Amino acid sequence: MTSLPHTACLRARTASGHEIACSPSDVMAIETRVLPHQACCMVVYEPLPDLGPTKSNMARYFSGFMQPMPWIYLSLDQNQATDPERSTRVAFDLAVQQIGGRGGAHELFALERIIDYHERVLPRYAQEYGELILFQTVMLSPPDIRKQGDDLVRTVLERLKTIASGDDNFCRHCGKDGVETRCSTCKKARFCQEGHVMGWKYHKVWCKPAGA
């Protein structure tokens, strides 16, 4: 978010039909503690062709055993209502897959109103402990890990540039590039064959017939 100009407008649309618009300065980090319902194993596989056709580097990461672990997500919007029912803030959780989770419409991430996120989405995959802690900024990761984040930031910014220029030929569900097929209803959103099926539950909430 700090890479975006302060004049940028962030728009969040959830699968429940909730929409907010805010500036990058209205984004905060929230930390809670969770204990996943199931143990999860993530495997990062990296081929090493220089060492031979069968050589690879593999790292495993485990979570969801005996102790609750820190869990951080982003909160969008400047609304400060203390009543969850009245708050318009939106939770943006990019890591929910790490505990076997999906968004409310089976997205690869969770983008939900705060109350929906804590009452309907996160409880499917983990039990929460303790109070929520809000941060305006977060501690930077070690340099080797931060480089991965910097690479991702550059990728996202490049994608935003292509959207602004109208060259947005990527699947709205999985992000695959070079997709030509469009939604048959709105004639705008592009989906690959698999992505159209998986992404329809979310897309249908905001899809409007062409010319409407």
UniProtKB/TrEMBL annotation:
InterPro entries, sorted: Znf_MYND
Keyword rRNA-binding among record annotations: no
Entries under Gene3D superfamilies matching the protein: 6.10.140.2220
Keywords, comma-separated and alphabetical: Metal-binding, Zinc, Zinc-finger
Domain of life: Eukaryota
Residues in MYND-type domain copies: 171-207
Molecular-function annotations in GO: zinc ion binding
Protein name as it appears in the record: MYND-type domain-containing protein
